[in-house]
Amino acid sequence: MSEDEEDERGGGGEGKRWSPDLVGGRGGGSGGGDPPPFSDQVLENVLENVIQFLDSRRDRNAASLVCRSWCRAEAQTRRDLFIGNCYAVSPARAVERFRRVRALVLKGKPRFADFNLVPPRWGAGFYPWLAALVPAYPWLERLCLKRMFVSDDDLFLLAKSFPSFRDLTLICCDGFGTAGLAAIAEHCRHLRVLDLIENDVEEEMVDWVSRFSTTSLESLVFDCVGCAVDLDALEALVARSPSLRRLRVNQHVSVAHLRRLMARAPQLTHLGTGSFGDGGGGGGEMEVADLRAAFAASRSLVCLSGFRDLAPEYLPAIYPVCANLTSLNLSFADITADQLMPVIIRCHNLQTFWVLDTVGDEGLRLVAATCKDLRELRVFPLDASEDSEGSVSDVGLTAISQGCRNLRSILYFCQRMTNAAVATMSENCQELVVFRLCIMGRHRPDYVTREPMDEGFGAIVMNCKKLTRLAVSGLLTDRAFGYIGKYGKLLRTLSVAFAGNTDLALRYVLEGCPKLQKLEIRDSPFGDAGLLSGIHHYYNMRFLWMNSCKLSIRGCKEVARRLPHLVVEVIRDKLEEDDVEAVEKLYLYRSLAGRRDDAPPFVEIL
Amino acid sequence: MEGGATYVSDLGNLKATELRLGLPGTDAPEKPTPENPRGSKRALLEANEEFRGKSKSPEADPNGQEAAPMAKAQVVGWPPIRSYRKNSFQARKAEAEGAGLLVKVSMDGAPYLRKIDLKVYKGYKELGEALENLFKCFSLGELSGMEGCNGSEYAITYEDKDGDWMLVGDVPWEMFISSCKRLRIMTGSEARGMRSSP
C-alpha cells in the first residue's frame, strides 16, 4: 500500500551527493592514480570497516565529502544506491563510483506524470541503466523502480542476468506486461519479493503465475495486473511458499478462491483481497461465515486492503482480525458511515487508514473516536470531478484532528473547507509531517467566510514544526506563499495548483524554504521573474516542474544560461504552437550527466 | 450584453435566461479559459473581485457554482487522482447506471483489441454479426459461431467472473452478459479443440 510513498527519512539526498568539485574533477571515482602507501592502505581498510555500518544515505553522503580516502571507503562499502532522478547522473558514472552495490532504487518521471501531464514516450527508460548494471553488479539482489518505462525485454534481461536477484518492486511504471512477469517468475530462482504497485500492465494474457521457480517467496503484490491469473497455479504457489507474508491479489480472485489461499497461508501478515462480494454466484450467508472463519484463522494479519466490488454484507467477515490491524485500506469500497461503523469500532490499533469519502463526515467522526493512534489518513473521492457534491468537509477534518492527535500524514479530498478547520488541525496535530489538502473545485474560498484559504495553510506551516511535505489548494493569494516562505523551514516537497496572484508568491517560496527539494506547480500565474528568483537554489533541488503558468522561453533560456549544470526541458504537447514564446511545460533538474540523448522531438533542452 | 438601458426592464427575464459564462448577477465579459495562461492573471484577479462581490449577493449559492468563472472545460489531470483509481470506479459506475456493458474483444493475430457494449445487442446472433463487422478487415469470413461454427476456423470465447474461458452460446443470453468480462476470438487448433467438445 504505497500510493506515492516517499522515503521521508532519506529526504532529498541522492545516492550521488551533488558536488561537482570533489567528484567531478576526479572522474567519479574510487579509482584514479597510484595506490596509496601502506599505512594509508591500512587506514582505508579500517575506514571501510567502520563506514560499512552507516545505513542512512544522508550520513553516507556527508562522510563521502570529508576527504578523498573517506570518499573511496564510502564508495566501496555502499550497498544501497538511491538515484532520485534517473537523469541526474549517467549510469556509467554511478557504477564506476559505487562498485559493490546490491540494491538500487531508481526514479524516473516527475510525479505529475501520474496525472497525464507528461506526454507518453517522454523518457525514463530503464534500459540504459540495465545495460550498465548487468556487467557492473552481477550480485545485484534488489531493485525498485518508480515511474520508469520498463519493457518486457528489460524484464527478460533482468531475470537472466542476476543469479542472486531477490526483490523486484515496480511502482507506477509502464511498458511491460505479463510476458515480462513470466520471465521474472521463471528465471529468478531465489525471488523473495515481487511487488507490482499501481503499474500500467499490458494485458498480454500470458500465464505467469504458474512459472514461479522460487520457494522463498515472501511477498507477492499484483492487484494492478488487469488480467486474470491461473488460480490453481496461484494456490499451488502459495502452498509451496512457507515464507510468504504478503499477498495482494487482483480483482479476478473471488472470495471462494481467497478462502483457499488464506487456508494455505495462515501466516500472512499483509493481505489484499480480490473482489469481496458474491460476484453473482449467490454465495450468501454460508460463504460469509466460511470467510469469517478463514479470517479468524489468520492470526498474524496486520494489514488489509483490496475490497474491490464489495458487497457490504461481507464486511463482517473481517471482524476477527480488526483488533490486530495496524493498516486498513478501504479506499476502493463504496460504503456509508453505517457500514463502516462496526468495522472501525473494532480497529483500535489502526495506524494507517485509507477510505473513500462516501463514509462522510460521520464516518470520519467514528474513525476519530476509535483510532487514537492513527498516523496516516487518506480520504479519496468516489467522484473525482470538480463539480461533484463532495461528501466530506471541514467537519470531518476537525473531528479527525480532535481524535487523532498523533497524526503524521494526511491526504484529504473535499469540496468544502474552512480556514478554521485547517487551523484547528494545525494546533491539534503537532506531529504532522505531510499535509495534503485537495479542494477539488478550483479556486474555492473558505465556504463560510468567503475568504481565501491563506490563513488555514499559514497556520499549518506555522504550527506544524515538523512539516516536510505540503500540497495546497483552494483560493490562495500571494499571502499564503508568504507564510510558506516564512515558516516552512523544513519543507522539502511543495505542490501548488491554481493558486497565487503574482511572481512574488514563487519568490517567497524559493527564497524562504532552504530545504526545498521538489516543487511542482500547475496553472498558477507565475512568470519569468518568479522563475529567476530561484537561481540561487536550483542546484540544491531535485527538480522544478511548472505547467500552464506564465513562463516564456526567454526566462527559461536565462536560467539555462546561468546554471550550466541544470537541465532545462521545455515540453510541447502540440507541435504547432501559436505562441512560440510561451512555455507550456517546464521541467528542470540538476544533473551531472548534462543533456540527455534520448529526448523525444517534443522536448527541447535549452 | 447588447441590451441597452431601455430594454433592461422589459427584457429583464430574458437577460436572466441568457446563456453566458459568468456568475449570475455580474456583467463581466466572457473569461478566458484556463488553457490560456497569458490572460489568466488578470482573469484571476477579476475572479477574486467577483468572489468578494458575490458573497454579498443574496442569490449566491453557498455550496455550488463557486468555481472561478472560467470555462468549465475538463482540465487535464485535475483533481489529481491517478488513472488506476479512476478506472476502478468508472467501470462500475457505468454498469450501475445501465450505461452499457463495455467489454474488450481480442482476436488472435489482430494487432489491437476492440471494445463493444454488450447491452446494445439482443442476442447471440446480433453479437455474432457485430463481431464479424468489427474484425472483417482481418478476413474473419463467416463467423456464425454461436450455434456451432461450421466451416470456419474461429471460436468465440469469453472470460467469466471466475476467470474461466467459456465457449460463447451455451448459457441464456441474459446470464451471459451478466457474467462476461471480455471476449476472445480464438483461431486455429485451439478453436477446433473448443468446438469439438460436445
Beta strands of chain A, count: 23
Largest interface: A-B, 60 and 47 residues
Which structural class do you get from the secondary structure elements of chain B? alpha+beta
Distance between termini of chain B?
Answer: 74 Å
Low-confidence stretches of chain B: 1-12, 26-71, 141-151
Q: What's the tally of helices of chain A? A: 21
- What is the count of β-strands of chain B? 5
Radius of gyration of chain B: 28 Å
Query: What quaternary form is this?
Result: heterodimer
Protein name (chain A): Transport inhibitor response 1-like protein
Pathway (chain A): Protein modification; protein ubiquitination
Subunit structure (chain A): Part of a SCF (SKP1-cullin-F-box) protein ligase complex. May interact with auxin and auxin-responsive proteins.
Pfam family, one (chain A): Transp_inhibit
Molecular structure report:
The complex is a heterodimer of chains A (606) and B (198). Chain A has 606 residues and is α/β, with parallel strands linked by helices. Among the domains of chain A are: 21-77, no CATH class; 334-526, Alpha-Beta Horseshoe (Leucine-rich repeat, LRR (right-handed beta-alpha superhelix)); 540-606, no CATH class. Chain A has 21 helices and 23 strands. Chain A has a 21-stranded mixed beta sheet. A two-stranded parallel ribbon of chain A has the order 5-7. Chain A is globular and about 70 Å long. The model of chain A is unreliable at 1-32 (pLDDT under 50). Residues 1-12, 26-71 and 141-151 of chain B have low confidence and may be disordered. The termini of chain B are far apart. In chain B, strands 2-1-5-3-4 form a five-stranded mixed beta sheet. In chain B, a hairpin with a 5-residue loop joins strand 3 (154-159) and strand 4. Chain B is α+β, with helices and mostly antiparallel strands and 198 residues long. Chain B has seven helices and five strands. Chain B is globular and about 50 Å long. Chains A and B meet through strand 20 of A and helix 3 and helix 4 of B. Chain A: This is Transport inhibitor response 1-like protein. Chain A: Its main location: nucleus. Chain A: Residues 1-39 are annotated as: Disordered. Chain A: Residues 40-79 form the COI1 F-box domain. Chain A: Residues 100-145 form the Transport inhibitor response domain.
